[in-house]
Amino acid sequence: xxxxxxxxxxxxxxxxxxxxxxAATLVGLQSIPGLVVMYAxxxxxxxxxxxxxxxxxxxxxxxxxxxxxxxxxxxxxxxxAAPFVGIPGPIQTIDSELVQAYFPAxxxxxxxxxxxxxxFQFVFAAITLVILAGxxxxxxxxxxxxxxxxxxxxxxxxxxAFSLWGGGFLASRGVIDYSGxxxxxxxxxxxxxxxxxxxxxxxxxxxxxxxxxNVLLALVGAxxxxxxxxxxxxxxxxxxxxxxxxxxxxxxxxTAMSLLVWTILDLIFFxxxxxxxxxxxxxxxxxxxxxxAGVVAGWGAIxxxxxxxxxxxxxxNYLGKKFAPWTYVDDTLGVYHTHLxxxxxxxxxxxxxxxxxxxxxxxxxxxxxxxxxxxxxVWLQLVGALFIIGLNLVMTSIICxxxxxxxxxxxRMSDAELLIGDDAxxxxxxxxxxxxxxxxxxxxxxxxxxxxxxxxxxxxKNHASTTARTEEVGY
Length: 475
Hints:
The chain contains 19 helices and two strands. The chain is an all-alpha fold. The longest helix is centred in the last third of the chain and has 31 residues, at 376-406. The protein is globular and about 65 Å long. Helix 9 (215-234) runs antiparallel to helix 10 (242-270) and helix 10 runs parallel beside helix 12 (298-322). Strands 1-2 form a two-stranded antiparallel sheet. Residues 452-475 are annotated as: Disordered.
């Protein structure tokens, strides 16, 4: 009997493998450096390091959890009779990495090795936690975040992933989530908002004035996020297929339309086009097209872009500023609006505009959406959204309470730490030029407000008088 060909087994399609690894790398770049630098630029200066590090940490932590137990919970054999999650287990042997990619619960196979599939699914899991972090920037205790990441991945993310992608009950009933509108965006938007409630708000002065410290750096991150989405949506046919090309084109069409609509609304109602507003419109367009990318036509992508540039705009700029719970819960970057609201808009639009040809190209048995006479798809999309929202309302609350009341780890930094920012949390400053910042003043809550000549007086004999003046102001 001939020896097994480990180099080029019969099932391996080198083109599919090359594209899948490329797509996975593009999605990875969306997190690091994409959202890392975007977060660093879009927050106040004193939170640049902490915000970037929360994203950086989540990426690393998710990978280790993913290969040790979480991948099989999302894409392995069903655990018990309930079709919600797979049996946990590692992907660590060389045989498990070289075998053909296969989802046992759904019967889906791909023409590349399991290692490629594991990494591809990992970058989606990682970016979900990175997006979620955007809701709690500027005050969450980093130690609590270190525990929150593996817990939320294990008890929330993998349930949604298995239910919709791994062969669980939502997939078997025909809910369409092409590339994570529900699994990633509705879940991160819901969980982020719930976590923001449990963590508590930023300091009042930070909520009132949280202007970006570096808009251009935020734009760099936004650009990486947009172009990286070609891999985000283009990789989900699990092949270098015709539908992958359609998904990439539709992604960019919807995103461009959404950005334009958001900018026009800013111009009409606020009289000035805002760069940060354009970034929000870009994000909502990317999010909304995600569940629909390869199953709608180009005109459908334009309509979805128009909806995602207007409905979340209204949600953020009207509802979010006037009504509870949005005014009560401190969602730092508006993740509720840009991901939950936009994800639901996209998911419901999928039920309306999915084409029969697009579904067939994606290897779905669905006969399309309402435009094809299948109004049932709209109902199915609603059920899928409600399940993900309910799952994350419950699990995120349980996880936050477990960290706070069982582990006795505060979810929120103290007010004294919040006054200082990065130095209190990490002992680092995002923009430390020369000796302008003195180590002796690292714990001074007024330091970032002090002019350079006062900082310089902190050396040697004048340090005591500088500290005294700081305390007299009341900070």
